[in-house]
Amino acid sequence: MLTTIYTFLFFLSGETVLGLTIKQSALSWTKTTEKSISIKCEVDGVTGSLVPDGNHPERDDFTVTKGSYDLRVKELKKSHSAVYYCASWMGGVKVFGSGTRLYVEAAAPVGPKLSAYSVLKPNNGKSILACQARDMFPNLVRFTWNDQSDTEVTLSEKYDLLEQKDEEEARVTSMLIIDQQKASSASYTCSVQHEDKHNKIKISAEPLKGSDSDTVQPCPPQVDEQKHGASELMHRLYLFNLTYVSLLVKNVLYFCAVGLLLYKRRVENNKTFSKTSPTSNQDK
Fold it and tell me: Which of 41, 140, 144, 264 is most buried (CB neighbours < 10 A)?
């Protein structure tokens, strides 16, 4: 589904102090038309009020909640689908929040299906934990990892974080790469945020008993995934055969047309030769 997206900025006017932080906890919202919504913006280190951007073409559709930094839309329209950012100036630099994406759609949001597995490589001291969210709408999620002490995991000499997104399949996978020699946590928790809801799944980082190989054992595909893969392969083979046959037919028609033109040219040459031959004999 394609959505035309523009960005609407609402700025904080007032005095900015050191240590400014802007937080937009809502990742996205999915609402139907004519509903209302309040987009929250949490700010620390600034005093002032929220001022909507005066350049927005639908500025009159938005109001600011008094005593807070929340932006409210009383009656949603399809054109309100956008990414909304909260921003403020800090030392001549504009600081942005993470943004909240608004979908104005007839379809209701669908939560993700979660799965997790570990890929252990004892030989090189690395282990990979994978957390996957799929079959959600909208396909926008946010992953966070925490160790067994509930401390959030960030990029460091102990950890690497990777994320892979498949737009067509509505599937997003987050991978946590752990250096077992430097990290001491035996288990980790993957938290997945979709819309305003959070789901958690716990994964063990301990090596499997009796495992002495660095061979990665892939997770067995589910039956529906096997059927989907087989049907997709058959569809591609059908398209390939159809393209191949079309090219063959095109070549045959081309050669037939060339052969017909050559035949007509030869017939015309024979007729011309037959007409000129008697005249030449009479002149002799």
Answer: 41
